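Protein modeling request. Please complete all fields; requests missing the sequence field cannot be processed.
Requester role: graduate student
Desired output: 3D structure, token encoding
Chains: 1
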Amino acid sequence: MNYEQIKQNILAFIENGESDSFESLALQVFTYQYENNPIYRKFCRARKVHPSMLQSYEQIPPVPVGAFKEADISCTPIEETETYFQTSGTTSGRQGRNIHRDLDVWTASMKAHFEESMMKEKKRVKMAILFPHPKEMPHSSLAHYLFIALRDYGTKDSEYIATNGDYDFEKFVAFIAEAEQSNTPIYLLGATFSFIHFVEYMENNNLRFQLPKGSRVLDTGGSKGRAIEMSSDHFKQMVAESFALPKSDCVNMYGMTELSSQFYDQSGEGIQKAPNWVKTVVINPENGLRVQKGEKGILVHYDLANFHSVLGVMTEDLGIAENAGFKLLGRSQGAEAKGCSLAVEQFRNGVSRWN
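Delivered output (355 residues):
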């Protein structure tokens, strides 16, 4: 199956696909990636896996997320691609890339799930973005995500609050105050740590807000590794109180540069929901097997929209499977972390073996 055929099949699935057809399309995508992604093909051969052997998407070898810092895992040569999104660096300074021949499927995935999870039958809403514009961060998947949200769902008086790496909180306060005075619902979207710093700014200046009914806050990225850290539950409670919103209107978006789709926690209970073109499996990283129901393990996401690189990505995130999604528990630790590191080492060795 060629590039245009697989692309159109995925776009059609995103638009109106039935979940019971995920299996067959996933196997098509795997075959396409095996044939066109030389690095991934080497990885699969090292594991003695061939498309003709598989009957389920769960048999498709997931690539550990750390492998994106080891090689360009792409179905298209970099010189023929439209863009790439770049991951954060490691302590060694290495950064990974998720390479995209074009962004048609990425954009369709983002918009379809954003509309379902965030818009609540609204066509457009006034937005403030607490993150830099893509002109400042052209290879940030989050910058591109927020740009599309504002461009396609924001009103003309929507605003960027971040400029040149800094946040104009005075401008943000004026933006919120105007919404309160006019009783206009607003959406506030940005990185988790940006909201943490703004709430700190509110406390230092004795500020409190009561956002109009219909307003929502969307955060993403978490706070781990920042100067100020807090749990997801603590963060959501803090934001709800600061803006006088129900917790259900404080939404966490979980996304990864190495994927092409996003997950949303709208329940206030920390349950991340995936679109029907993504399946998540919770595994033991030491043996790759699915854990028992209710047990914690490492999250593996199979994302049809990620057809430019690899369908299956083994994260370094701990979680527990729920009926309609998964509960995110944070980064792997102890045995799970060692299992994730081992998976990256196996990827490195498997690719080298077939050079």
